[in-house]
Amino acid sequence: PLGPAEGRAAVLLQPFVHQVGGHTSMLTYDEHTICKPLVSQELSFYESLPLAMRQFTPQYKGIVSVHLKKDSLGNLTLIASPSLGQPDSCGRLDSTGGDPAVTLWHKRKWSHTQVTKTFKDSCPGKMLLRTDLQYHTDSLLEDANGKQPERKSYNPWGLHCHQQHLNRMSSKHNENKLHQFLLLENVVSKYSYPCILDLKMGTRQHGDDASEEKKARHIRKCEQSTSASLGVRICGMQVYQADSGHFLCKDKYFGRKLSPEGFRQTLRQFLCTGKQLRTELLEPIILRLKALLAVIRKQSSYRFYSSSLLIIYDGQEHKESANHHLPFPKTHGTNPCRVDVRMIDFAHTTFKGSKSNPNATPHDGPDQGYIFGLENLIKILQSLSEGK
């Protein structure tokens, strides 16, 4: 760690290893914090977040400035420097051991060629992405000393997003341009083997600001997928396979093709880390979804277009989890399974009084499309728990 003299050190941003969906590159700022490009509508959502929703969203931790850096070999990296002149509440990050900005967590460079190469190595001879990818839970990269770092594995989808993001940034902007990124809680940092299901919620995905062309494209995707029939579709998933030590990954293209029955089967597959269904996870997930449903029903004027819902649990069964040193979220009571349900991605969320879009006509009542999706999700999980 650097001494206090160096003050606000820059942080080398790494691709976030557990990104299963979306198209924005998510980056790791520190162990408990990820960052993503700032969209004013999303910032506006986090700044006026209703209290009741806070337990269902990542904690917002402020804004950071990010710039591209090219090293002598021409490798591109992203560097974050804490925004100066910011109110303390935003600039400061609550984390043990002082300001994480002062610690350079990451010693490895993520070069452009490395990301591409790693990517190709992780799925030999295949096109960039197939829908059925597996990745090892050992690292694809060695650190500077040629040592294998701690168990690190990369969901290929996240690497794909990261690579595209670097390409876009380097072609559009020069190195010195500062980009604003949002700092958000890494909601999977407490899991050893995070199993993550990314669900696109609601019957409509396009924002109010979408062009006619984009609107038509999104409507078509909804009509041709379970978004229309169930109000929810799978956008990405990773499930730890205890027997092989791999994560099984599915991407959004897989999710779009599913029938309602296929959706149900995939939901079942998401809850199988080994040979049998983790039935003990069903009740805590259902309870948490029902709690979220009650909150969404009360949010008048909110429309969560294109946002996702994450369902998370640990692929490693904790027999000793009752005395596990990590606190469970308060809502779980003594839930030993440590499941979590979180809403993410609010770039197209609209609500009455939104600072980013003050002239928009507010919608009335709660988000019925979202509610329809949640109700169907709960029904399917209940039928799985009844062994149907």
Automatic annotation (TrEMBL):
UniProt keyword terms in alphabetical order: Kinase, Transferase
Matching InterPro entries: IPK, IPK_sf
MF GO annotations: inositol hexakisphosphate kinase activity
Gene3D superfamilies in UniProt: Inositol polyphosphate kinase (3.30.470.160)
Top-level EC class as recorded in UniProt: transferase
EC number(s) reported in the record: 2.7.-.-
Cellular component terms per the entry's GO annotation: cytoplasm; nucleus
Gene Ontology process terms (BP): inositol phosphate biosynthetic process; phosphatidylinositol phosphate biosynthetic process
Family: Belongs to the inositol phosphokinase (IPK) family.
Protein name per UniProt: Kinase
Gene name, Swiss-Prot/TrEMBL: Ip6k3
